[in-house]
Amino acid sequence: MEFEGRITAVLPARTGTRQDGSTWIDLSFVFAYFENGEQRFEDSAIVSTFDTNIMAKIAPYIVRGQDGKTVIENGVSKLNVPHIPCRCGFSLKAKNAQKKDGSGPLRIQEVRCYRLEVTTGAATKQQQTQQLIQPPFSPQTEENDDLPF
Protein backbone atom coordinates (compact mmCIF):
# COMPACT_ATOMS: atom_id res chain seq x y z
CA MET A 1 0.00 0.00 0.00
CA GLU A 2 1.23 3.50 -0.76
CA PHE A 3 -0.16 6.73 0.65
CA GLU A 4 0.68 10.43 0.61
CA GLY A 5 1.03 11.72 4.15
CA ARG A 6 3.53 12.94 6.69
CA ILE A 7 5.91 11.61 9.28
CA THR A 8 4.87 13.20 12.55
CA ALA A 9 7.34 11.50 14.93
CA VAL A 10 10.47 9.38 14.67
CA LEU A 11 11.11 6.89 17.45
CA PRO A 12 14.66 6.22 18.69
CA ALA A 13 16.45 3.62 16.57
CA ARG A 14 16.88 0.12 17.97
CA THR A 15 20.02 -1.88 17.30
CA GLY A 16 21.12 -5.43 17.98
CA THR A 17 23.33 -8.30 16.95
CA ARG A 18 22.20 -11.31 14.94
CA GLN A 19 23.29 -14.85 15.75
CA ASP A 20 25.86 -14.67 12.93
CA GLY A 21 27.49 -11.64 14.61
CA SER A 22 26.27 -8.98 12.15
CA THR A 23 24.48 -5.92 13.50
CA TRP A 24 21.02 -4.67 12.60
CA ILE A 25 19.24 -1.34 13.04
CA ASP A 26 15.47 -0.77 13.07
CA LEU A 27 13.91 2.67 12.76
CA SER A 28 10.23 3.26 13.51
CA PHE A 29 8.18 6.36 12.78
CA VAL A 30 4.58 7.56 12.99
CA PHE A 31 3.09 7.99 9.52
CA ALA A 32 -0.17 9.98 9.31
CA TYR A 33 -2.26 9.76 6.13
CA PHE A 34 -5.75 9.96 4.63
CA GLU A 35 -6.97 6.65 3.21
CA ASN A 36 -9.44 8.44 0.94
CA GLY A 37 -10.29 12.03 0.07
CA GLU A 38 -13.59 12.08 1.97
CA GLN A 39 -12.01 11.47 5.38
CA ARG A 40 -12.02 14.37 7.82
CA PHE A 41 -9.56 12.79 10.27
CA GLU A 42 -6.28 11.21 9.32
CA ASP A 43 -5.25 7.64 10.03
CA SER A 44 -1.84 6.84 11.43
CA ALA A 45 0.43 3.84 11.85
CA ILE A 46 3.77 3.12 13.44
CA VAL A 47 5.88 1.96 10.51
CA SER A 48 9.30 0.29 10.86
CA THR A 49 12.19 -0.23 8.47
CA PHE A 50 15.53 -2.03 8.36
CA ASP A 51 16.39 -0.28 5.05
CA THR A 52 19.33 2.10 5.54
CA ASN A 53 18.42 3.99 2.33
CA ILE A 54 15.03 4.89 3.83
CA MET A 55 16.71 5.88 7.11
CA ALA A 56 19.07 8.15 5.13
CA LYS A 57 16.04 10.04 3.73
CA ILE A 58 14.73 10.70 7.26
CA ALA A 59 18.13 11.47 8.88
CA PRO A 60 18.46 15.11 7.68
CA TYR A 61 15.31 16.02 9.65
CA ILE A 62 16.51 14.56 12.96
CA VAL A 63 18.20 16.97 15.39
CA ARG A 64 21.61 15.85 16.66
CA GLY A 65 23.40 17.14 19.74
CA GLN A 66 27.00 18.36 19.86
CA ASP A 67 28.09 14.77 20.57
CA GLY A 68 26.46 13.63 17.29
CA LYS A 69 23.75 11.63 19.04
CA THR A 70 20.03 12.03 18.31
CA VAL A 71 18.24 14.46 20.64
CA ILE A 72 15.34 12.63 22.33
CA GLU A 73 12.39 14.58 23.78
CA ASN A 74 9.39 12.85 25.39
CA GLY A 75 10.51 9.47 24.06
CA VAL A 76 10.80 10.51 20.39
CA SER A 77 13.61 11.89 18.26
CA LYS A 78 13.47 15.67 17.96
CA LEU A 79 12.78 16.88 14.40
CA ASN A 80 13.95 20.19 12.92
CA VAL A 81 10.56 20.52 11.14
CA PRO A 82 6.99 20.03 12.49
CA HIS A 83 6.49 17.04 10.15
CA ILE A 84 8.04 15.44 7.06
CA PRO A 85 5.70 15.38 4.02
CA CYS A 86 6.23 12.15 2.08
CA ARG A 87 4.83 9.25 0.11
CA CYS A 88 5.21 6.02 2.05
CA GLY A 89 4.77 2.47 0.84
CA PHE A 90 4.25 -0.10 3.58
CA SER A 91 3.06 -3.66 3.97
CA LEU A 92 1.21 -5.43 6.77
CA LYS A 93 2.08 -8.86 8.08
CA ALA A 94 0.61 -10.85 10.98
CA LYS A 95 3.33 -12.83 12.76
CA ASN A 96 3.60 -15.42 15.48
CA ALA A 97 5.98 -14.55 18.29
CA GLN A 98 6.83 -15.78 21.76
CA LYS A 99 6.22 -13.66 24.86
CA LYS A 100 9.46 -12.49 26.45
CA ASP A 101 8.58 -14.12 29.76
CA GLY A 102 8.01 -17.44 27.94
CA SER A 103 4.39 -17.70 29.09
CA GLY A 104 3.03 -18.51 25.64
CA PRO A 105 2.52 -17.51 22.02
CA LEU A 106 1.70 -14.02 20.83
CA ARG A 107 0.26 -12.60 17.57
CA ILE A 108 1.69 -9.29 16.43
CA GLN A 109 1.00 -6.99 13.48
CA GLU A 110 4.13 -5.84 11.70
CA VAL A 111 4.01 -2.72 9.50
CA ARG A 112 7.14 -2.48 7.33
CA CYS A 113 8.12 0.43 5.08
CA TYR A 114 9.39 -0.67 1.67
CA ARG A 115 9.45 2.76 -0.03
CA LEU A 116 9.75 6.37 1.13
CA GLU A 117 9.78 9.47 -1.03
CA VAL A 118 10.14 12.77 0.82
CA THR A 119 8.04 15.48 -0.86
CA THR A 120 9.32 18.56 0.98
CA GLY A 121 8.27 21.82 -0.62
CA ALA A 122 5.28 20.38 -2.50
CA ALA A 123 1.74 20.24 -1.17
CA THR A 124 0.63 16.66 -0.63
CA LYS A 125 -2.70 15.35 -1.88
CA GLN A 126 -3.90 15.14 1.74
CA GLN A 127 -3.21 18.84 2.27
CA GLN A 128 -5.03 19.68 -0.97
CA THR A 129 -7.93 17.39 -0.02
CA GLN A 130 -8.11 18.89 3.46
CA GLN A 131 -8.34 22.37 1.93
CA LEU A 132 -11.28 21.20 -0.21
CA ILE A 133 -13.01 19.67 2.81
CA GLN A 134 -12.43 22.68 5.05
CA PRO A 135 -12.25 25.80 2.85
CA PRO A 136 -10.74 28.88 4.45
CA PHE A 137 -13.16 31.33 6.06
CA SER A 138 -13.94 34.28 3.82
CA PRO A 139 -15.88 37.12 5.46
CA GLN A 140 -18.71 38.67 3.51
CA THR A 141 -17.56 41.96 2.04
CA GLU A 142 -20.87 43.26 0.73
CA GLU A 143 -22.49 45.82 3.05
CA ASN A 144 -26.11 45.17 1.98
CA ASP A 145 -26.51 41.50 2.71
CA ASP A 146 -30.29 41.69 3.44
CA LEU A 147 -29.95 40.03 6.84
CA PRO A 148 -32.56 41.05 9.45
CA PHE A 149 -29.95 41.86 12.12
Give an overview in words.
- This protein has helices at 52-58, 125-133, and strands at 2-10, 14-17, 23-33, 43-49, 72-73, 76-77, 84-98, 105-118.
- By secondary structure, it is mostly beta strands.
- The protein has one domain (2-129): Beta Barrel (OB fold (Dihydrolipoamide Acetyltransferase, E2P)), CATH 2.40.50.
- Strands 1, 2, 3, 4, 7 and 8 form a 6-stranded antiparallel β-sheet that branches. Strands 5-6 form a two-stranded antiparallel ribbon.
- β7 (84-98) and β8 form a beta hairpin.
- The N and C termini lie far apart (53 Å).
- The model is unreliable at 122-145 (pLDDT under 50).
Short description:
With 149 residues, this protein is mainly beta. It has helices at residues 52-58, 125-133, and strands at 2-10, 14-17, 23-33, 43-49, 72-73, 76-77, 84-98, 105-118. It starts with a strand and ends in a 16-residue tail after the last helix.
